[in-house]
Amino acid sequence: MQTRTTAPPVAPATGIDLDAVRLERVSKTFAASRRGADAVSALQGISLRAGEGEIVAIVGPSGCGKTTLLELICGLMQPDAGTIEAQAAALMAQRDLLLPWAGAADNAALALRVTGLGRAEARERATALLHDFGLAGFEQARPHELSGGMRQRVAFARTLLAGRPVLCLDEPFAALDALTRQEMQDWLAAALAADPRTVLLVTHDVEEAIVLADRVLVLSRCPGHVVAELHVDIPRPRRRTDPELVALRARALEELRA
Question: Kind of pairing, strands 215-219 and 226-231?
């Protein structure tokens, strides 16, 4: 039995813990891709919650169902069992998926154009956001003219302009070099502080998870389910050399090895 509902955004009320995303014992299995192969159970009995405005990072071994989890939350596929209740969610994939023939502003504005907004107004709103993201002067630049970090900022602007209260970020900085990745982590932390959303962040980088998230969920090997939950009660902005952060990173790695 499977259930999925989309909950409308609700204004926070004092003393009430509101969930933007709630999964209860969700499972997903994929049929065999070729004759003689076994079906693949990606997720099994996974339960999790994300409160309004909370950043939840999800880490786990390769192939444990992290991307499948985000696609289920975004409604791109249905669970085989369990219940999903989620406010409207936008997915930012690992690849930026920018249109090679379009400029940065038009790429970011695509999220508005698909809703029926006119090109001029959509471009104007996208341009204003790109300026906030430090991309003034690059509005007409095509993807091949932008650095990897710039491309990710454009992709994130497009995700924000979709206007969804929940953001599902799937390894957004995986393709970047180490220095650019750290710079983008700091930039994303500042962007989310300025425009808070509920965020589910999938990453292989445990340090990235602890730098950005309020909670870190550790998934098991396939089929994925939550085996540990770490609360990150470290004031922002966070320093990677902070002893508390280093200790939490070590704990998360221990859980992954287990």
Answer: antiparallel
Is the peptide bond preceding residue 8 cis, with omega within 30 degrees of 0? no
The residues, ordered by sequence, that sit 6+ positions from 185 with a Cβ below 8 Å of its Cβ are 173, 208, 211, 212
Kindly give, in sequence order, each residue whose CB lies less than 8 Å from that of residue 181, ignoring residues fewer than 6 positions away: 173, 205, 208
- Write out the residue range of the structural domain in which residue 152 sits: 98-163
Shared domain for 110 and 233, answered yes or no, is no
- For residue 221, is it within any domain? yes
Residue 87: strand, helix, or coil: coil
Whether 95 has a pLDDT exceeding 70, the answer reads: yes
Residue recorded with tokens 């997915």: 91
**Same domain, residue pair 182 and 65:** yes
Chain segment 37-56, per-residue pLDDT in tens:
678 889 999 999 999 999 99
d(C-alpha 236, C-alpha 192), whole Å: 12
